[in-house]
Amino acid sequence: MAEIYAEMPGAAEKLTRLYLGVFRTINSSSEKYPSSMEVVAIAAFAGAKILYAGVNESGGEFGVGGTPGTGLPGEFGTTYAFINKSTVDIWVDTNRINFFRVTLLMERMCPLATGLGRNFNETYFSEYEDAINYITITKGAYALIDPHNYMRYNDPSDQPFSGSVIGNTTDPTAATTEQFQEFWTELAGRFVDNPNVPTSLILKNDQAAVDGIRSTGAKQLILAPGNGFTGGHSWTQITGENDDPSSEWLFKLVDPLRNTAIDIHEYLDIDFSGSHNTCTQAGPSNLANLTSWLQEHNLKAVISEFGGSNDPTCLELVPQMLEYLAANDVYIGWTAWAAGPLWGTNSGCCGPEVGSLEPGQLSIDGGPNGYTTLWEAVIQQTIDIPNLKRSGTSSLS
């Protein structure tokens, strides 16, 4: 989703994600894990190739914005939902994509009464599992598991402005790194036999999550995000409240299978938030430092969030960025923000007029939404369909 995200039924919120379809993790304590940078080292491709191209399916995190203490657990199909199976059919059968980033909310998966960890709300999990299985088993695509939680586990109504980040040892009410590892160990274990389920982590507890995931025997791809909403343009810069540049520590993450990629968000509006109608940022120049860093450390990356409106500036700059990704072999995939069954005429990105990327829905003015005016207009044409990965465990190659 956009970094400024239109929470149903319309409140703007920022979000970061955690996924299991491709596992995504973060740990900033570089001195604790001092091994070399081969998080995702692999043999060089013969040529640049995008292996995964697709869309975010946002909706599992809906229904909690606004009033503290409300929205949990929520009502499936009304306040939250994961996918519309008929539109997943369109994406796979007509658009020929192979990659879906599917959001969830940790406070729904692990109720606050029992805490973050191994104790799941089995109803919520079964609903989520049904969505993941439809994408991966029925349709044969890849599904990235994405917890949308701002590095927090608490009352989600005002995240990221409520409570401490997971692993904050100065706050006794914060969820611990150990709990976060238990959560990922449990979740990864439940999908260990599904090769089409990679995972995306959130937080600066990436190493703990990677360790937990790999302890289950899971071999799937993991995505590891960085600081500052994991922006590619700011990868080598201090972000937030003097957070270290992601470039200074993330290459030290250790994955014994060397099947971890870097998770990047890159919106093209004036402040990189994905909240404005016009695009002013050039992806190639803004990603140049990240690209050099990936090359230096022999790493790969996935752009898991980007978007645009149907403004002419976006119709030019969005495909320009996607063509840049396809021309540089350090990038292996991307997912656009955002489709999902509950958007209606609301817009997940780039101004209220656009609508979502959900096929068959309209924009707020009753006209075509972003599926028609952005995806079909310019994004679809950039996809090298024959080279997309169609089988085998999610991986870097």
From TrEMBL:
Residues 57-339 form the Glycoside hydrolase family domain. The keyword Magnesium does not apply. Keywords: Glycosidase, Hydrolase. Transmembrane segments: none annotated. Pfam families: Cellulase. It catalyses: Endohydrolysis of (1->4)-beta-D-glucosidic linkages in cellulose, lichenin and cereal beta-D-glucans. GO terms for biological process: glucan catabolic process. It comes from the Eukaryota. GO terms for molecular function: cellulase activity. It is an enzyme of class 3 (hydrolase). Belongs to the glycosyl hydrolase 5 (cellulase A) family. This is cellulase.
